[in-house]
């Protein structure tokens, strides 16, 4: 009988423990993707990107003589049960996911299938270190990055598995939905074609990104990773989010570079472990996704009204603060934002504007093609000061001096801001082509005045903290 392999955020053939186990049985394999409520409700850009990833992976499987069977079903369990009935499969394998909704769903699926006498097994692969496998000396979980890093950096990480040589096809294929009918890009207000040129899709592209990074960029990574005008990082977050590459593959390649003495390799390894740390925290304290992680922040008077004009200005990249606006526009056009930009815009929203980090978290979830529930929540709470290992709440980034420091020649600001520029960059203009007319912005307008003055905003934030007794 065939085995169902249920793909989710693991759209690759190599280093895929579940697929490896399936192929080792020698039995026919039926790869499946189910669009359930969880994936159907994704933010616009992550959903669009997931659609592209699925389409590409289906082509890769076809080239192997296999297929990706697509089903839409509010509950994944129902979709799986239908397929079990139609194909006679008695086994379902998948790669574990760690966000609370996926854990609830997958546990229920496993229990229900087992009760039916179906073998249901989950495998690792999305993370190098299972969140429960990393413990402090007293058996707790880590709340601070550095000791987490010290503990895991000396661990052995499994060597990546090769891609299966072939996937045995079943005697007959069950019916599949047509991906186009799922309209995965439909919620992209800015039009899917705006972001598409910036996407690098699939396993092969991810491997070549890793290769290019380690041959050309890693030696300067320590300096360049902070410069938003320089393409100095791996850009792998987009691929890691959908499992088009595994962290193990990145780790082992990074380790090789480290042992070759390449500067920057260790910091890259550390960044990969930040991703693991985010998952560690999400597993042990799932409230990080929805509530202030530091309990003493519970009563902090964040502004939660999204209709406020400052929030709109922040989302629309017209706060009058060039670093903030450049980064927000970069995200709108490319679906990505440089890490320094993410820190700056998050600090500005939560500190200068005293808005709830959840507003930013949600907007990022709508706009980022590399959206990751754990990294996004940790990044926002870190920036806001309410999270674990946070930037101290009293440290308010000054977005003006930050720009002077990290974008000396203003190449980044110029790339994204067209106003008051006689010869605007094509990307800066692409932004104006992408935004809805009703935002009322035009490149020939003059650049807006700050919605909140930088030093005023800082003072206001510090006062709010003081009033709270911090
Ligand atoms: P590189 O510098 O090449 O790093 C390699 C990999 O390490 C990344 O691909 C990523 O998987 C991991 N990594 C690096 N920095 C971090 C970090 N701070 N936290 C967790 N993992 C990290 N990252 C996402 O992948 N998805 C998100 O939704 C996301 N939201 C964020 C929101 C905020 C407010 C902040 C401050 C950070 C956020 N990050 C997020 C983390 C970071 O900005 C991105 O991972 C990074 O910019 C991706 O670029 P890169 O792949 O070139 O990274």
TrEMBL record:
Where along the chain is FAD bound?
A: 221, 233-237, 268, 370-372
User: At the top level of its lineage, which domain of life is listed?
Assistant: Bacteria
Gene Ontology MF terms in the entry: deoxyribodipyrimidine photo-lyase activity; DNA binding; FAD binding
Supply the InterPro entries for this chain. Answer: Crypto/Photolyase_FAD-like_sf (IPR036134), Crypto/Photolyase_N_sf (IPR036155), Cryptochr/Photolyase_FAD-bd (IPR005101), Cryptochrome/DNA_photolyase_1 (IPR002081), DNA_photolyase_N (IPR006050), Rossmann-like_a/b/a_fold (IPR014729)
Site note Electron transfer via tryptophanyl radical applies to 302, 357, 380
Obligatory cofactor(s): FAD; (6R)-5,10-methylene-5,6,7,8-tetrahydrofolate
The alphabetized UniProt keywords are: Chromophore, FAD, Flavoprotein, Lyase
Record's protein name: Deoxyribodipyrimidine photo-lyase
- Signal peptide interval: none
* Family, per entry: Belongs to the DNA photolyase family.
Q: Which GO terms describe its biological process?
A: response to light stimulus
Is the keyword Membrane in the record? no
According to the entry, every stretch annotated as the Photolyase/cryptochrome alpha/beta domain falls at 1-128
> Is Lyase included in the keywords of this UniProt record?
yes
Q: How is the cofactor bound?
A: Binds 1 FAD per subunit.
| Record Pfam families | DNA_photolyase, FAD_binding_7
Under Enzyme Commission nomenclature, its number is 4.1.99.3
